[in-house]
Design a protein that fits this description.
This protein is an all-alpha fold. It is about 75% helix and about 0% strand. The protein has six helices and no strands. The chain has helices spanning about 1-35, 45-65, 75-80, 80-110, 125-130, 130-150.
Length: about 160
């Protein structure tokens, strides 16, 4: 199980890295073309937007495993320690249900927009919109991994050797 989770995490990290590098490279090219060559790239803003959305959705799934998302935990902190663990697990389960709902709705949105083309790059918007259900499913999987870890303290579910922060 640990090898599968490591491969999943590694693949997502590589995709986030590639999207970030692509975003930065295209932005840099656009600056060069606009201010040095005096001829803007018509597709660069759209490409950067799509790469940024990919980075956010996939990067969010990685942040779940490292407990890096912001949250209001005042209620959890005032609860007794014996209840706090179960309260945070309940909150995680609520988020998982929301992410599953989001993935379903966003998949329907992607299907409805398969025939519409983006203005500059002429990509099928349905393909671009698929990052929402993909990212939501991966986030739900990672929240489930965190919930299992909270119950068992088995680090194999996190796909790494260190504890959650």
């Amino acid at each position: 199980m640990k090898n599968i989770l490591k491969k999943l995490d590694s693949s997502i990290e590589n995709l986030v890295f590639a999207c970030t590098i692509g975003f930065v490279a295209i932005s840099f090219l656009q600056v060069i073309f606009r201010y040095i060559i005096n001829n803007s790239l018509s597709w660069s803003e759209e490409a950067c937007r799509y790469l940024f959305v990919c980075t956010v959705f996939l990067g969010s799934s990685l942040a779940i495993l490292k407990n890096k998302h912001i949250g209001v935990d005042i209620l959890a902190r005032i609860l007794p320690k014996s209840i706090e663990k179960y309260f945070t697990i309940l909150l995680d389960l609520i988020v998982v249900v929301y992410l599953i709902f989001l993935s379903y709705i966003s998949f329907e949105l992607a299907l409805k927009n398969m025939n519409q083309l983006s203005p500059a790059m002429q990509l099928h918007l349905g393909i671009v919109y698929l990052i929402m259900p993909i990212g939501s499913v991966v986030m739900a999987i990672n929240f489930i991994r965190v919930i299992i870890y909270k119950f068992t303290r088995d680090k194999d579910w996190l796909g790494k050797d260190e504890d959650l922060c």
